[in-house]
């Protein structure tokens, strides 16, 4: 209904335009009728004068023509016509109605036709516009009900009705101690993340779980003038992140994006509800892999917490598909700005889901870049041109994705101590370039997946990672190109 209310000014302008058009058309019709009447009255006068002259010519026939006509009559037995011209005129048919009367009748019928056409055109146009607006509102309401995105009386906004089937399932979040009995499964810059189980509606139904991100309102109900500058900035930042989450993942659907299921506003915080991902994040899965390797477990990467190479490649293809949707398919283009393994979640089938759109920005098609107030993101995954100019484009996301590919192949993250133990402080990207240029490929492959028969595919992925992390953003591929290149790697 809010969207329908927002379109009311536009509808008023359309109605005003149609009324103005009606007045102009009627004025034009009246002016045309006046000109038409004047022209036809002149034509009528000319036709009357012509009729009089013609009648005069017919009645004033020269006598010699009459005599010649009489003399040319046959002399034989037929009777001769000695009737006078007056008698001939009396026996002729009745004269036609005056031309002025015919012209007036024709003028009135033409005027009525023009007026009826104008009125029919205007009435039909108004009916079409009104019916179109009504159908548009009904279509939006139906679409919102199908996709979710409806608000309850308590202020709860549901985006995924397939998961949150009833608003009552989130009623526990309206209590003061609604999260007291829930387990904390993660913490971030905005707050904690909790795990909760939805009520089972039918016997024998599989339990459904949700993840609840609690975003605190800084200072609670305290007036804004009592907050320091830093606290005000944090408050503004969290408010922007909540709005960004709602504008992006609340309204988009893709198998490789973690969609927002519901938003529950509270006086002291906001609750953002998502589908629970059982396998956690890619960052957690890779750390579990390293822990298994240090404990002497199997290095095949197929342990309880590990990721085999086919699983890693599938994750890479899934992230590329989600990024392609954000950059190419969705209008306007959405730039994530914080791609990293911690923001890539894995569902029950180890399918990748891009999450945490708190820093995401929509970039209109007419813009080549967007200028930010400051650099946002995670150290090691931020593109170098973003550092220098505070301007980000879709190629900044491609750079971050290239770092993720390097992490998948090497098993090392930019924050690992490995890069701080060298004499020269280098990052993951520079280190990978040196190793690949020197031909020491074995050093670049994660020991957890090395020697399993996939080394050629891993090296191909590393080359794609270097391609995505070029210093010049113009030399980097697009998200669509990366997805196509990764899809050609066969496991």
Major sheet: arrangement of strands: 1-2-6-7-5-4-3
| Dominant shape | elongated
For the record, give the distance between the C-alpha atoms at the N and C termini, rounded to a whole number.
50 Å
Strand count, sense and barrel status of the largest sheet are:
7 strands, antiparallel
Number of strands: 13
- SSE topology string: HHHHHEEEEEHEEHHEEEEEHEHHHHH
In CATH terms, what is the architecture of one domain? Orthogonal Bundle
Mean pLDDT reading: 76
CATH topology of one domain: Transferase(Phosphotransferase), domain 1
Structural class comes to: alpha+beta
- The CATH superfamily of one domain bears the name Transferase(Phosphotransferase) domain 1
Please tell me how large the radius of gyration is. 42 Å
CATH class of one domain: Mainly Alpha
- Please give the count of helices: 14
Q: Roughly what percent helix?
A: 40-55%
Percent strand: 5-15%
Uncertain runs are 1-10, 63-83, 85-90, 219-225, 297-305
Organism: Zea mays (Maize)
InterPro entries: Kinase-like_dom_sf (IPR011009), LRR_receptor-like_kinase (IPR051564), Prot_kinase_dom (IPR000719), Ser/Thr_kinase_AS (IPR008271)
GO molecular function, one term: protein kinase activity
Membrane topology: Single-pass membrane protein
